[in-house]
From TrEMBL:
GO terms for molecular function: ATP binding; ATP hydrolysis activity; branched-chain amino acid transmembrane transporter activity. Transmembrane segments: none annotated. Residues 4-236 form the ABC transporter domain. Coiled coil: none annotated. It comes from the Bacteria. This is ABC transporter ATP-binding protein. Belongs to the ABC transporter superfamily.
Amino acid sequence: MSELVVEDLVAGYGDARVLHGVRLTVREGEICAILGPNGAGKTTLLRALSGMVKARGTVRLGGADLIGRPPDALARQGVAHVPEGRGTFMPLTVEENLRLGAFVRRGKAEVEADLERIHAYFPALKTRLKQTAGSLSGGEQQMLAIGRALMLRPRLLLLDEPSLGLAPLVTRELFRIVQAINAEERTTVVVVEQNAHLALGIAQQAHVLETGRIVLSGTAEEIRADEQVAQSYLGYRV
């Protein structure tokens, strides 16, 4: 089970509180889009879910309590986080980056099979296995970051601004692949994204975060049809 349940989540940095009692549920195998202006706390939310910032409240994945556990423990629970800026290891090769994604796994044969699985999603990476990550284009680096996360065989995939700095054509292809991964592997996905059109196009549900609080929730269709969202994030009036 990979249902994500978040209740009364409070998180921040030092004495500065960023999240104020966030509550949401993402059913197993769904894609959830998190929208909101800059500074709303979207990145902090993903960091709290992956154990990168101190938080209190309730975070459960498939019934297992995740709150207060370090990132490596959450990785072993199947939580994979692709941070804003991709977070690839630039001096390492593409293959080395991918293998690092499987650091908590055992079973050489399964890891080798998953390398081929990643190549099927991202064929461009297969031809660049011996290149350093720093020599890749921005789009290829984002593919590598997602591929490395998938090597974990995650139950929950957290994506922070995957379209940042990418050309529109590359972005659309990346979102198509994320949708395929979700459909084929039933991976639960939470995506933070400024491009609301694309995020709502692949998500089943969405939440709007403002000043650390969720101010609007619903299905992707409901959020897309909301006049406030349409004017603020989609650029048109309902």
